Amino acid sequence: MTEAIYVQLLYLACGAFLLTGVLVLWRRDLSAIIRLFALQGLALGALILVLAAYQRDLALALVGVGVGGLRAGLLPYVMRRALAAAGAHRETRPLVNAATSLLVAAVLAMLAYAISRPLTQLAPGPTIRAVPVALTVLLVGFFVLVTRRRALSQVVGFLLMDNAITATAFLTTSGVPLVVELGVSLDVLLAVLVLYTLTDRIRASFGGTDLDELRELHD
Amino acid sequence: MILVGVWYVAALSACALAALAAVLGPARGRPALVGTITVGAGALAAVAGVAAMGGGGWQAWLPEVLPLAGVRLAIDPLSGVFIAVTGAVTSCAALYGVGYAKDGHGPAGRVTQAAVPLFVASMLLVPAAASVSTLLLTWELMAITSLLLVLAEHRRRAAVGEAALWYAVMTHLGLVAILSGLFAFAASAGGESFAQLRAAELSPAMRSAVFVATFVGFASKAGIVPLHVWLPRAHPEAPSHVSALMSAAMVNLGCYGILRVGLDLLGGGPAWWWLLVLAAGAVSALYGILHAVVAADLKRLLAYSTTENMGLVLIGLGAAGFFATAGFDALAGVALTAALLHVVNHAAFKTVLFLAAGSVLRATGTRDLDALGGLRTRMPYTTGLFAVGALCASALPPGNAFISEWLLLQSLIQSGSVSGLAGVVLMPLAVAVIALSAGLAVATFVKAFGVGFLARPRSPAAGAARESPPAMVGGMALAAGCCLALALAPVLIVPALTRPVLAVVAGTGVSARDLILAGGAGAISPTLIAAALVLAVGAVLALTRAVMVRRSRRVARLWDCGAGPMSARMEYTATSFAEPLQRVFDDVLAPENDVDVTPARESAYLVRRVAFHARVPDRIERRLYDPLLAVADDVGIRARRLANGSVHRYLAFGFCVLTGALVVLAVIE
């Protein structure tokens, strides 16, 4: 693979990664959000595969396939099951509406570029220049966590952050060891399973998964 | 010399062994086993300390013990003083503790038994620490183990929890101050070992900031006004041998810290540092003894007396630092010798007094002097030993506190040669403070001994008191023996202090000989004074006896204004004894008296009941701490509104703080 094609493919994957992350803010249909999340998982896997192909590293390619499989296949599957069980398919009235959310996402992107300037200056290269993209997705994920009411969209926000952290790890280092990535992925899977169970319980106990209705529980 | 290291490591190992025995040993006989090993540890530590004072040094560097920083230990003559004092106090208190835990009176549980040797070990480690991280680690270990011990009796009295809370907060605020000071010091010195700190070149402002921060932290441990509030709470509520350890050994380490950082690591500084120390010491001495004189709770009285004595030590330290910066090394040496001698003396008599107070508490179940009395016949040993301690504490000639305070006075009086306003105005003021506190100390301990032990019992509990077990009496007797030795033969100990003093005061041109007051008007011989006193008392007794023998004896009723027979209610109480003094110092103490009159059924003249409440609240606590606590409470209640239970709000807090921090970062870049 030539240098130019490598950079183009890398930026394509990063662009897809960012776009799917921002679009999560736009859609209110929960199944669409899960679909977007799956697409983002694919973009992340592709990103790692591009890196592996450029470095001619088989282990990294395996990690890429594994990460893609987990985030585009297994996690969306678990969430779809949770959604089917919950029955409510739409995000009711997010705390910040879609248009404002997209504006905030733009501001967050600017912030991410501003804060990662020292990083890019440290070692200018195609991968490092893509780090702000990952940081933007991280902030967007946090924003989803703050503004969305449904338990399931909260899970997606959490997973967006995790995707972004993984992407940052692969972009800033020259490949994360298999063992580390395996451990992280298992952790994420476990967290999602726990959240799935918890969502189920919340729904069974209170008849809904709108987290703001649970505020009476404090104290 | 290697010997110091051997003794020291042996002492630490014995502490570890004792803690292990407490955890693994059988419940039956646990206090005896742990106590015996701890007595040995104390003795070993005392030997190590004395050997270090004699000039032996020891160093160790253990990089594996603590990740990243490693543990660095070094014993020099100055650490030797504090190690020796801690060791001696430990031996007495541990021996006493064996008896104290008997019959379910004291704490015999696994945790409290293990905490005592660990507390001792941490107190032995603090003066030996030779790097910032080691000092802070051992300091915190000391705070935590002592906190555990203060909490030992929390199931019996509700006040214990409150006292421990005060102690925990104050000691940790002190730690924060020390930590920030020393970290700033280490950061600008470019290394954290004491050798690197000594060699560091710092800007004057930085040096002053480090000194003030560490001074505040160490002063809070030493119970210096206005940071003393934990002391009169924690000391009374801790088990008595723990009170003795805390009051006689732990608070000293606050003085050690000031000395180590101020004079050794920072190498002295501007005169105002030391005038600050001196002023804090003077205020503490007066405030402490004034509250001690009006206190009716025996252990509270002793705790306030600790504040007073630490104040006196700080006067000595302040004077020493001031003289050293002014270039009067010989005077500085005398003042510092006096301060260190007072540390030793205070440790000796405060151990006796706290142990004896614990013995009384164990026998009668009360610390209230107004409910005690009449213990002389029922608890003869405790009474006798408390008398020794009280005599030593009251700064009168045959006692040991007299010697160190005399030495301190001499160093201050001879400061006339130091020019400048401070020398002319402040030193005479400090002399007056010492004289006044010595006078009040006499009244305090006359009250404590006279009301607490003599006359008739004022409550049934005091009337039914029984003497403590032999181990407790042994512990007290050991400490009282140290008191007497220090009182009669200070000549033996003062020369041993010259090396530690020379280690800190620059020492150019000062020889050990100069530190002994060169004849002059100030020279006294405690042994001769004691001998003269014994002779005088003997002569008076012999004379009265000779006169009395000539007259025939007859038994008659004591004159009682016809109201007789005299009852215990007619005796002086602690409150009434202190009342005149309380009147004199009314403006300072601001006592609160409530008279509550209940008339008998609508009659203006017939009174059914009169209730009188008198208490002397700690004014500093009232004025300084209560408003602060009220503000903190208020903020806490208001802050509850921030947490309304919404998950989104909590997440939003995190999000806002994160993005806010990032924006600040981006702007700064």
UniProtKB/TrEMBL annotation, chain A:
Subcellular location: Cell membrane
Membrane disposition: Multi-pass membrane protein
GO cellular component: plasma membrane
Signal sequence residues: none
Keyword annotations from UniProtKB, A to Z: Cell membrane, Membrane, Transmembrane, Transmembrane helix
Annotated TM spans: 6-26, 33-54, 60-83, 95-115, 127-146, 155-172, 178-198
Primary localization: membrane
The protein's name: Hydrogenase-4 component E
Organism of this sequence: Acrocarpospora corrugata
TrEMBL record, chain B:
Keyword Nucleus: no
Membrane topology: Multi-pass membrane protein
Cellular component annotations (GO), alphabetically ordered: plasma membrane
UniProt xrefs under InterPro entries: ComplexI-like_HydComp (IPR052175), NADH_UbQ_OxRdtase (IPR003918), ND/Mrp_TM (IPR001750)
Compartments (UniProt record): Cell membrane; Membrane
Keywords: Cell membrane, Membrane, Oxidoreductase, Transmembrane, Transmembrane helix
GO molecular function, one term: NADH dehydrogenase (ubiquinone) activity
Top-rank taxon, per record: Bacteria
PANTHER family: FORMATE HYDROGENLYASE SUBUNIT 3-RELATED, HYDROGENASE-4 COMPONENT F
Name of the featured protein: NADH:quinone oxidoreductase/Mrp antiporter transmembrane domain-containing protein
Species name: Acrocarpospora corrugata
